[in-house]
Prior knowledge:
With 633 residues, this protein is of the alpha/beta class. The chain is built from 27 helices and 17 strands. The protein has a 7-stranded mixed beta sheet with strand order 7-6-8-9-11-10-15, sandwiched between helices. Strands 1-2-3-5-4 form a 5-stranded parallel beta sheet, with helices on both faces. Strands 12-14-13-16-17 form a 5-stranded mixed beta sheet, sandwiched between helices.
Amino acid sequence: MQNLEDKYPLLWSIDSPKDLRRLDKNSLEQVCKELRGFIIDSLSVNPGHLASSLGTVELTVALHYVFNTPDDRIVWDVGHQAYGHKILTGRRDRFDTNRKFHGISGFPNPKESEYDAFIAGHASNSISAALGMSVADLMENNNKKVVAVIGDGAMTGGLAFEGLNNVCENPNNLLIVLNDNNMSIDMPVGGLNKYLTDITTSKFYNDVRFKSYHLLKKMGVMNESKRDKMMRMGNSIKTSFTGSHNIFEGLNIRYFGQVDGHDVMQLVKVLTDIKDFEGPRVLHIKTVKGKGYAPAEKNDTVWHSPGLFKVETGERIKSDTSGIKRYQDVFGLTLLQLAEKNEKIIGITPAMPTGCSMNIMAEKMPDRVFDVGIAEGHAVTFSAGLAKEGLMPFCNIYSSFMQRAYDNMIHDVALQNLDMVLCLDRAGLVGQDGPTHHGAFDIAYLRPIPNLTIASPLNERELRNILYTAQTEGKGPFVIRYPRGKCEGTGWENLPFEEMAVGKGECMKEGTDVAVLTFGPVGNFAAKAIEALEPKEAAKVGWFNMRFVRPLDTEMLDYVAKHYKYVITIEDGVRKGGFGSAVLEYYADSDVQIPVSRLGLPDQFVEHGLPSELYKLTGLDSDAIKAEILKHL
């Protein structure tokens, strides 16, 4: 294989954006070509988010060429657009550690680099955060430039619109770059649109505009009220030429675009022209997700995060799963089967139909599945509206993203005790996406809410039956949490559905001294730990699969307290406020004196890495569980 330094000589001369800015502008197209090639080569052997970062190569180069980073701030939204940014900001030589244990993060992280202005693991926060930075800059007279790069669906999030609403009200000089790679914004075409963009971003036009405004203001003809009216008139005139109108102009935010997001020379020109403008403005660029790699351009969903692949052929290298399905597949296939039997079932997901496997139902029943975009709060309240009218919504949201819909769950669902099912995908440690994506907090933040039922299956067979149980009427809001990835390999597909008793666990193994209480698939680690004990030791250990954290199986807890000397609780969530805390609370309220040891995630954010590495790190793998059991025998 050719040496990377020889293959990408111009890229290897750039150790920081200062090096990039020293280059002649005519070199930028070659920089883009090498940067794109390096991303493709790197991700073919070290998987990550491919298509999104390929789509922002030219924008990344142009931003760092025009703006004086890191003094000027670039806030990326969403973060998986920013691989090129990481490579150009001193992390090229470490990019092979991207998303690996102790390696660099897959998302911008200020702890990692001064060039990462704000953390960006979730979506839609850039405008609000960057607005705060811009307002602070004006207050402190620092004369820094602040840019929010929002795209890849992030504009569908409610926080983005809250930020926009505030942008037009407060003094700021924020530049918002809208990276439009597949959004429902009409594309003005033809030479006239490009001509108008060139005019409205030109230095001459804006000097005349600025001087005219201040002259009229000095003459007493212009005030802020009239200024707003003039700006609206100007927007109306531009609208009459382009034949389009948009939300930004409606909010009195200056709008420039659309610009070809893959023409780096045009991007540099436009950004240079508008970077010193006063007041908020939006630059709307049009890009292609997966640009420059044909397989990714043809199927950007698959190539969003494709895993290992062969660069030359585009062949994806799938790991051997020996026919074992993922929890996501069990959910998707089971939901379709339930929907075929129950016509009231409706599927809702915030922009993750393929990731959560709701696409299986969508392909067969497109009229009964709704992808609402990156809008988790709306997804929950929309589901509440469906439930209020007698339908049975299954709302599937990644556990970490559900944090954004907490009030909706309390106010719109639980308070009305509505029949709906909230499926929390990616619960627990998710692996390489790291702390922004770990589903660490859902047990703790949902457990105090009245009217909720909260369950977690031990394996795919239980997941199937809990899904079946949840869709029967009269259950109220029913939460089901399950992890990312492969199942345990139990048979489930051809078995009949069985309704499970809500709030009841199962004794998997009796013992005499130590009772191990588990919640969810992490119980399989406990099973392996017990199997690894010597026979005499194993005989002293009982294992109880609790299944529900709300309501708790208090009869089982009473039995355990009566027959065992010590309790160990295990959960794939934070210890504070989680399943173990619920057990402690019950024993304390019942005045039961029994020692309890809680295993779970620590009181800190867990880094990224392979799940096996992270379970070992947090003391949740089978070896750590075995050691904990032996301490109490």
